[in-house]
Design brief:
Radius of gyration: 18 Å
Number of domains: 1
Strand order of the largest sheet: 1-2-3-4-5-6-7-8
CATH class: Alpha Beta
Distance between the termini: 44 Å
CATH architecture: Alpha-Beta Barrel
Oligomer: single chain
Helix content: 40-55%
CATH superfamily: Divalent-metal-dependent TIM barrel enzymes
Length: 305
C-alpha cells in the first residue's frame, strides 16, 4: 500500500507582500526567505508577468523543493470572472479565462490552482440557487476535461454569499450539494476557517460535511461579529488581534482536533493566510510566530510577539 505523503505547511506570500504579484525578482527572493525560515515547505502566491518569468519561478520552486499553490482567485475576484453566470456566453468566457491562468500555473509548476465561483447573483439579476449549482457544475466539468494528469490540481474556495465579498458559492450546504451532485472529480475544495465563520458555521461540522473533497486548508482569521470593527469582513487579520473570530488558542485547538481525529488525512496542503496592512516584514514575522504556535507538537507554552 502506497504511503500517504506528509501534509505540506504553507504561507500565503502575496497576501503579505502584494508588490510581489508583479515583481518576479522580489518573489524569488521571498521564496528564499521562506526556505530559510525552515517553518514552511509550501508557498501560495499570485503572479502576473511574462512566460519566461513564470518558467524561472517554476524552476526556483523545484530547486528549493517548495510546494506551491497559484492563487488564481485573486484576479478572478478582481476581474469578476464568473463561472456560475446564468448567461452561458459569460460562463464560458470565465472558463476560458481560467484556462489562461491554468497555463500560467503549469509553467510555474504549481501543485494546485485556487479558483472561486464568481459574483453572487443576488448582486446582479437574482437568479436561482439551482441555476448557480447547474452552471457551476458545468464549469467544473469543462475545466476538469483540460486539467492535465501531471498539471496543477484545481481547488475551489467557497466564500460568503450573503455578505462581503458576495460570491455565488457559497454556503457550506450549497458546496456539499455542488460536489455531491457531480461524478467523481479530481477537483477539490479549499476550506478556509474564516469563510466558515463569516457564513455563521462552526468549523468542525462544516469541515466534516465537506471532508470527502477537501485537499487544501487555509487557517485564517476574520471579524464577523462586530460590523463597526475596521477589520470586519474578509480581511484575514492576525489571530492575535482583539475581536477576531478565532484567537490563537482557539485556532490551535481546532487544528489539533482535526489532526487528531484523522480529518486531515486527505489534506495535502495547510497554509496560514494573513493580509498585511503595511509593515510587511513585521506581518511576515508575526505570521511565522503564529504558525509555529499553532503547529507545534507539545504544550501551548507562552506566545510572545
Amino acid at each position: 500500500m502506497e504511503e500517504k505523503a506528509r501534509m505540506k505547511k504553507g504561507i500565503c506570500l502575496t497576501a503579505l507582500y502584494p508588490q510581489a504579484m508583479e515583481n518576479a525578482e522580489l518573489l524569488l527572493e521571498l521564496f528564499e526567505k521562506v526556505k530559510e525560515k525552515e517553518r514552511f515547505d509550501c508557498v501560495e502566491f499570485y503572479f502576473h508577468g511574462k512566460p519566461e518569468e513564470e518558467l524561472r519561478i517554476g524552476k526556483k520552486l523545484k530547486q528549493l523543493q517548495l510546494a506551491s499553490v497559484f492563487l488564481a482567485g485573486f484576479p478572478m475576484k478582481r476581474d469578476k470572472v464568473d463561472l456560475s453566470a446564468g448567461c452561458d456566453e459569460i460562463r464560458k468566457k470565465g472558463v476560458a479565462d481560467c484556462l489562461k491562468l491554468y497555463e500560467s500555473a503549469a509553467r510555474m509548476q504549481a501543485d494546485k490552482m485556487l479558483i472561486l465561483s464568481g459574483p453572487a447573483w443576488e448582486m446582479q439579476d437574482g437568479k436561482s440557487r439551482d441555476g448557480i449549482l447547474w452552471q457551476m457544475r458545468n464549469s467544473l466539468l469543462e475545466m476538469e476535461a483540460w486539467m492535465g494528469q501531471d498539471g496543477p490540481q484545481i481547488t475551489l474556495e467557497f466564500f460568503n454569499d450573503k455578505g462581503e465579498p458576495w460570491l455565488a458559492v457559497g454556503d457550506v450546504a450549497m458546496v456539499q450539494e455542488l460536489f455531491g451532485g457531480m461524478p467523481e472529480t479530481k477537483i477539490g475544495i479549499t476550506f478556509d476557517t474564516s469563510h466558515a465563520a463569516q457564513l455563521g458555521w462552526d468549523v468542525l461540522p462544516a469541515f466534516r460535511m465537506l471532508q470527502p473533497w477537501i485537499g487544501h486548508l487555509h487557517l485564517a482569521n476574520s471579524v464577523s461579529r462586530e460590523k463597526r470593527h475596521p477589520l470586519f469582513g474578509d480581511k484575514h487579520p492576525l489571530f492575535s488581534i482583539e475581536g477576531g473570530d478565532f484567537s490563537l488558542a482557539r485556532i490551535r485547538k481546532l487544528y489539533r482536533t482535526l489532526e487528531q481525529s484523522g480529518d486531515l488525512e486527505q489534506v495535502d496542503i495547510c497554509s496560514f493566510e494573513v493580509i498585511s496592512r503595511g509593515e510587511e516584514e513585521l506581518y511576515f514575522e508575526r505570521t511565522c510566530k503564529e504558525a509555529a504556535y499553532v503547529w507545534e507538537q507539545e504544550g501551548a507554552g507562552n506566545f510572545g510577539m
